[in-house]
Amino acid sequence: MSRSRVIAIVAIAVVAVAVGGFIAYDQILRGDTTAALTLPSAAPSAATSSTTSTPSPAASSEPSTATGSGAPAASAGSSGSGDVAGTWTIAAGSLAGYRVREQLAQLPAESDAVGRTDKVTGSMTLTTSDGKTILTAGTITVDTTSITSDESRRDNRLRSEGLQTDQYPTATFTITQPVEIPAAALTGTASDVTLVGDLELHGVKKSVSIPAQAQLTNGTISVAGSFNFPLSDFGITAPNIGGFIVSIEDNGALEFLVNFTRS
Length: 263
Hints:
Blueprint: H1 3-29, E1 86-90, E2 95-104, E3 107-117, E4 120-129, E5 132-143, H2 152-158, E6 170-175, E7 179-181, E8 191-201, E9 204-217, E10 220-230, E11 240-241, E12 244-245, E13 251-262
Antiparallel strand pairs: 1-4, 1-13, 2-3, 2-13, 4-5, 5-6, 5-7, 6-8, 8-9, 9-10, 10-13, 11-12
């Protein structure tokens, strides 16, 4: 076989591998345009927030990748601090999942890949003293096997690669330091809080600080947050498709919007 023929065959093989890798990326790992999980945007005025009502949350329990919030919509005059001490349990409309920017070699994805689930359980305990409301304990557990995105083939791959949900079927966050809940949050205004606790993900447990926002509306306390971290911190390796590494700077994010109602 002539040298030129060998070179031609090698060139065709390289192109085939490159095209195959791009097709895998395009068909399996291309991201979507799901908005971030956020709290309701409307907040009641201080003048109309002196009473408390506790209707059931109106949010659907089905996970959605088309909207940015699973929390019940806030409405003026429907919130109040009252006596919130006690145990609160995670309710319908709660969502949690991942967000990661995917990349084939040096080709950026059009958007982030986002996977979510509404299989979120747990509770929190609030105490009140001297006019302050303190979060003293709390646990959130996510069923990682039920996380879905806009692409079933990506979801299937995460069973054995990446999150390896077959081997690590749950992720858990447990509060380890008390958190003071801002008074404004208890009158319906989205307020910043920092949640310090142990995150157990992919079989690895680490102490983390998660920036979040909290808000009481319609008898439901909603907490939304996002935690960005290097995948390698939790022993997670980006999936490898046909020899092409899919990841960007080894970074990902956990996102959650959790609704709590009185137990």
